[in-house]
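Why should sequence recovery work at all? Because a backbone constrains its sequence more than one might expect. Tight turns favour small or flexible residues, buried strands favour hydrophobic ones, and helices have their own preferences. The token representation captures these environments compactly. In the example below, the structure is given first.
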């Protein structure tokens, strides 16, 4: 159950990071509200997952899901650039997440 909570915490991190970008510095009320609600949910689920998972594992996977997801949202929805170096960096983050999961009890 902790892994499921951690996964959804990571998805909510993608939501709040994307909504924060769309909030234009918290000047747009709806995007700002989505940012704050998703942050609260993400942190709450992370805290619950950390009851059973080690800090380093939980935090690394949470931030990794958020980083990769924000990277994809930036490219797909916001028209950010794609380059070989950026794709390699994203692949390395994914490898780190997978290795951390494999190394966890």
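From this structural description, the recovered sequence reads:
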């Amino acid at each position: 159950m902790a892994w499921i909570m951690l996964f959804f915490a990571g998805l909510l991190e993608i939501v709040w990071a994307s909504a924060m970008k769309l909030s234009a510095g918290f000047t747009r009320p709806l995007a700002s509200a989505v940012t704050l609600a998703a942050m609260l949910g993400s942190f709450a689920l992370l805290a619950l997952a950390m009851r059973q998972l080690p800090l380093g594992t939980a935090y690394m996977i949470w931030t990794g899901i958020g980083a990769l997801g924000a990277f994809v949202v930036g490219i797909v929805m916001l028209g950010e650039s794609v380059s070989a170096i950026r794709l390699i960096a994203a692949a390395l983050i994914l490898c780190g997440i997978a290795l951390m999961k494999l190394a966890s009890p």
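A few observations help interpret the result. The longest helix spans residues 55-76.
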